[in-house]
Amino acid sequence: MEFRKPSPFQWIGRNRRLVTFLLSFVVVVAVQTLLYRWGMAELEGRPRSLQDSLNVIVQSLTSTGYGQDAPWTSIGMQALMVVAQFTGIAYIAVAVPQFVVPWAREELTETRVPDAVESAEDHAVIWGYTSLCESLVDDLEAREEQYVIVEDDEQRAETLFEEERNVVHGTIEDEETLEAVNIENAVAVVVGAKQQENVIGTLLSLAETNPDLEIICLIDDPEQSRYLRFAGATTVISPKHRLGKSLADKAQNVVSTALEDIEDFDVDLEIAEFPVTDDSPLYGQHLDSLDPLERTGATLVGVWLRGEFVTDPSSEAVADESTVLVVAGTEEQLERIEPITRSGGRSATAGPVIIAGHGFVGTTAEGILRKADQQTTVIDTEPGEGVDVVGDATETTTFDEAGIDDAETVILALPDDDDATLATLVAREADDDVEIVVAANDAESASDLYRAGADYVLALPKVAGRMTTLGLYDEDVMTLREQIQLTRTRAPELAGQHPDTDEVRERTDSTIVAVKRNGEIVTAFDDDFGLETDDEVLVAGTDRGVSNFKTEFGDGED
């Protein structure tokens, strides 16, 4: 994507004070030049040309000398030259600190923000860059998708430009800015939360400019959604609502088939979740190819990716602090994963949940869990409908009253990240085995929360970025109704192929986690291991994925 630098006329518009200063100086020089020429002819009796008069005035204003005309004998000429001297000093005193020094600083340290893109197609235009959009931009850059940020604050635009973001300084309400970002060829406009107050008129204008334009709005208050849709928004995303849902999903069962149901398969297999920490060798790696994990012999069943559970991560997805790997393997294989992820594994099964915080995020999580008939206890500082324990989540006694000893998961949905960090310390001290899932308002708080003992931190900006990316590119994720199934079957169509072949996951959205051959169970597959027609396989996938597996590779018999 190419950008165009600001034009001279736009530079003048942004530097009106300097232009006014220079124009006033020109007027002063012109007036004093004419007065000097008149005075030399009428008062001194020594006529001078216009050029000579200008030269003397400039010398006086700049304090560089007077040449052959000094001294002057008349009082009028002496007064004129005194005024010229003081005028010159005044202009210099104003010019140096107000214009010369800032100009020198800008030229040495500052780059100029473009005012337009020269060429762009199928790009996303981001209006109102907030922390919620930062993760979106990271995702777009990882996918090598084009985007441009429209920022009306010049200083903020300069900061983004220095951070090597694609940014244009302007106001999206102006037709010139819409033309500058090539709105007619854009695939979507993403409206940040800070632009919601005066967005209705602009949405109407955008919809008229490009009827095929996707308009995605990030909102704090879901009640605004219908008005934004009326105005032309095609997608309205409430990150806080999505964050609450993601926390609830994380506390529920990912694997719906109990391992006891396949005991006759005679396999010592476990499914566990491993959070990826920022010091893990997996951090920053693409999730569709995790070589260190593959060497453990365990099988990747799915991934929690910024609050969504996906069974087949895209090639653009990268492991970060909001990533949890769901892995199937023997106890020995799972033990090999711990030094790789730098975290301990936890069972993927669910149990009683404690929710600390009954704001919008906590209320959303509570509603989903109670609807799923999952035992839930809610803590809040104020009594109210749905609140079971009134107390401070930074106090151990509050968690004791909520029954933390019997809980499987603690969800912290507090409005302040510092309080969430303290509550994490308290919950971890109260029960060393409980799973602690935390909602963070700032992505930068994740490291502190993990150090405090959190098992999984989901930051609001990460959720917003993920959901916006999904909205832009119509990607699907697994919903809670599509939990992982473990199913025994046969796969004669895969005879001769390796169990970990990419073809299985790509075509069926499922994976082979174990093979039974001649009464022996194999869970770690050598590079030269090939499936045989009579092999019985243990497949992990959604209902749809398992069904696809049987259709694509099975013999039609269970």
Could you characterize the architecture of this molecule?
The protein has about 550 residues and is of the alpha/beta class. Helix content is about 40%, strand content about 20%. It has 19 helices and 23 strands. The strands form 5 sheets. The protein has a 6-stranded parallel β-sheet with strand order 5-4-3-6-7-8, sandwiched between helices. Helix 2 crosses helix 3, helix 10 (about 240-250) crosses helix 13 and helix 10 crosses helix 17 (about 460-475). It starts with a strand and ends in a 5-residue tail after the last helix. The model is unreliable at about 475-480 (pLDDT under 50).
Strand arrangement within the widest β-sheet reads 5-4-3-6-7-8
Tell me the total number of β-strands: 23
Report the uncertain regions: 476-481
Principal-axis shape equals elongated
- The proportion of residues in beta strands is 15-25%
What distance lies between the first and last C-alpha atoms, to the nearest angstrom?
A: 54 Å
Average pLDDT figure: 80
Gyration radius from CA atoms, angstroms: 34 Å
Tally the helices: what do you get? Answer: 19
**Secondary-structure class:** alpha/beta
Describe the sheet with the most strands: 6 strands, parallel
Helix content: 40-55%
Question: In short, what is this structure?
Answer:
With 558 residues, this protein is an alpha/beta fold.
Features:
six-stranded parallel sheet; elongated; alpha/beta; 558 residues; 19 helices
Blueprint of the fold:
Blueprint: E1 2-4, H1 8-14, H2 16-42, H3 50-61, H4 75-109, E2 116-119, E3 124-127, H5 131-142, E4 147-151, H6 154-162, E5 167-169, H7 175-180, E6 188-191, H8 200-209, E7 214-218, H9 225-231, E8 235-237, H10 239-251, E9 270-275, H11 291-294, E10 299-305, E11 308-310, E12 323-329, H12 331-341, E13 346-347, E14 353-356, H13 360-371, E15 376-380, E16 389-390, H14 396-402, E17 409-412, H15 417-430, E18 435-440, H16 446-452, E19 456-459, H17 460-473, E20 485-490, H18 502-508, E21 510-517, E22 520-522, E23 536-541, H19 543-553
Parallel strand pairs: 3-4, 3-6, 4-5, 6-7, 7-8, 14-15, 14-17, 15-16, 17-18, 18-19
Antiparallel strand pairs: 1-2, 9-12, 9-13, 10-11, 10-12, 20-23, 21-22, 21-23
